[in-house]
């Protein structure tokens, strides 16, 4: 909850991975608070569907951008389009990411390793590099990145490649936060445990049960629970926070 009433009204956020899951729910939450949302995703149809949902709710405005976040020219174009459409960018939420596919460690090949790092780590690097000059021109801005609770356990047996890429996201977050802390920029990451997203549908029932058994609350997190945290981190209620990662684990951090 922001300290200032209507804090987000008229402010603008760029969200990657906005077509589904955490990105979509976060877009709806920011719009609920009166923010304007640039909804970016690969394939314009999903991003446009989120914009329709935003505008149907009648609060903030939405704008869809087709963007492959592993491509520098498209990421630069996304930020430029956001600035042209809404005037400036106050917040960036880098939600796009994927395990790509499950694999035990011995079967991770070069292509899976590279693709996983491109989708999860390179994308965050490119998005932050693209938006930072704009934020620095205004001496203000908040960037929130999605890391993962997997980085604390290493993803043994199914997602070591993903855990390693998300560990890189956490390191990038800390480095950027500390480099630009004197310029009014805050940069944070969120490390969720398993969250109910379309990707989880592809997991086997056995793996899903194993994940749930490791969460004391006995369930996956919901995308909206992560979105509400992003809203708080971008608000004026936690201005002393930067370079931190917030673990959202349903109690799993104690195991």
Task: Explain what you see.
- The structure is a single chain.
- The chain has 255 residues and is of the alpha/beta class.
- It has a single domain, classed as Rossmann fold (3-Layer(aba) Sandwich), CATH 3.40.50.720.
- It has a seven-stranded parallel β-sheet with strand order 3-2-1-4-5-6-7, with helices on both faces.
- Helix 1 crosses helix 8.
- The mean pLDDT is 93.
* Name of the CATH first level: Alpha Beta
CATH architecture descriptor name: 3-Layer(aba) Sandwich
Percent in helix: 40-55%
**Classification by helices and strands:** alpha/beta
**H/E element sequence:** EHEHEHEHEHHEHHE
The portion of residues forming beta strands comes to: 5-15%
What is the CATH topology assignment? Rossmann fold
Number of strands: 7
The strands making up the biggest β-sheet line up spatially as: 3-2-1-4-5-6-7
Instruction: Let me know the largest β-sheet.
Output: 7 strands, parallel
Outline the fold blueprint.
Elements: E1 12-16, H1 21-32, E2 36-41, H2 44-57, E3 62-66, H3 72-86, E4 91-94, H4 110-138, E5 141-146, H5 150-153, H6 160-179, E6 185-192, H7 205-213, H8 223-234, E7 245-248
Parallel strand pairs: 1-2, 1-4, 2-3, 4-5, 5-6, 6-7
Helix pairs in contact: 1-2, 1-8, 3-4, 4-6
Question: What would a concise description of this structure say?
Answer:
The chain has 255 residues and is of the alpha/beta class. It has eight helices and seven strands. Helix 1 packs parallel to helix 2 (44-57).
